[in-house]
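debug: dumping io for the single-chain case to check the tokenizer round-trip. Nothing else runs in this session.
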Amino acid sequence: MKGDSSNIVQRLAARLPPWFGDANPVLDAVLAGLATAHAWFFSLYGYARDQLRLKSMSDMFLDLLARDFFGDELRRGANQSDSSFRNRIRIALFRERGTRQAIERVLTDLTGRKPVVIEPARIADCGALGVNLALGSAGCIGSFAMPYQAFVTVFRPLGNGAAGYPGIATPVFTTGQGAVLTPYSMIQPAVTDADILTAINAVKPVGTLVWTRIAS
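debug: decoded output
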């Protein structure tokens, strides 16, 4: 393969004068040593080149790029792979902003559940008496006294909690034999309420007020 040790040995040998001969153990050892070092340099060059583009970036360089563009707003999740984190960065870089749809999309991407957005000054959200709204039955009461405001209900991601781990009252805990503790990663939510509020502030139109309710 191009750039590996055997390839570099062939390249070096092709540039030597012919009087060394084909069978020369000392020369072969020298060339092998040089080729090993140059193969490592070549692989390092390829790795460094890959870190110049988001599509090929990996490891800590993805975290550095996310920090440069988004500060603390976008961080790698626990045990999150490079490909998954790269996809989150790409979505955040090219995400729609400044619209109602932007809020709906970012919250759906974040939690996996579509939020409920109500704009009091938007007739399509609140309806009209005698048309598609019944007092005390269904619908929201609108108000033109609340322009540039919205009420958003966000639903936390669904999860299975600590499935498969015994409860505190099971024998594994009361007998003291091989107690099993639930991993912290299963206790700590993947998406916190602070993440939700940060996502809304990142895409909402400037000069608007978004009242947020977070439900499970």
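debug: round-trip ok. The chain has three domains: 1-50, 57-94, 97-162+171-216.
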